[in-house]
Amino acid sequence: MPKRLAARLMPALSAVSLVLAAGCTRIETGEVGLRINFDKTTDPTERLPGSFNQTLIGDIVTFKIQDVAVAVDNMTPLASDNSTVKDFDMTVVYNVNPTAVSELWTTKNRTFHGVSEKGGDILLMQNYVALSARNAAYKVAREYESLKMADNRPLIEQKIRENVIKTLTEEKLADKITVSQIQVRAITPADVIVNSANELVRAQNELKTKEVEVQTAKKEAERIAALNANAGAIGYMNAMANLKIAEGVAAGKVHTIVVPYDFKGIVNAK
């Protein structure tokens, strides 16, 4: 090719390269793409991560399929004590089988899917998973008292996940959607339940205080009774001591005696 002709073609080739580059979409890690043809039909072949796909004719729709997080908030399930939980929030994390993307997108109602916060990715089956998890949470919460839910959080998470998986299996979606994690972020009992619990604790503390007071009074009464019962014995021992002192004085065996100022056992002091 003559140099002059090559020089003329270079700008054109560069322009074509720029157009082709601008008209391509790269599928990122954790995503799967589907081609929407010029006639609005969907190509059933999934475009996998790392692939470049031209969008000059038709378009490429991307779907996030890995570690999709769904927030299910502001639930108010009924507890086993028939109280309504004030707030129950959780997050569901799930994955979509890459080979099931085309089927789920073309056969399921659009209301089953969601859109990422940035609006760039379609979250396959997000709304469906959120609804299934919500139903499971309401069912599992019925097994626990409001004040015991927080202590049983890990078990509640496990049971919710099992219920969601059961629903997916019944709907023949277990091989297409995998729920990897349920995280219960908040469980807030109703105010009336919390207030009642606080009153119960206060009453129990007061009862314990009164029980201690009763036991203390009982021990004091026993001590006084024991002293009263031994009063005669103490008097007898005092009399015997006085007698021994008198005998010692009479026998000349005692030269010095230290006695209390009110001692009246030997002589009749007037």
UniProtKB/TrEMBL annotation:
InterPro entries, A to Z: Band_7
Coiled coil: 193-227
Highest taxon in the source lineage: Bacteria
Residue ranges of domain Band in the record: 26-221
Signal peptide: 1-21
Keywords annotated in UniProt: Coiled coil, Signal
Name of a matching Pfam family: Band_7
The protein's name in its UniProt record: SPFH domain-containing protein
Species annotation: Polaromonas hydrogenivorans
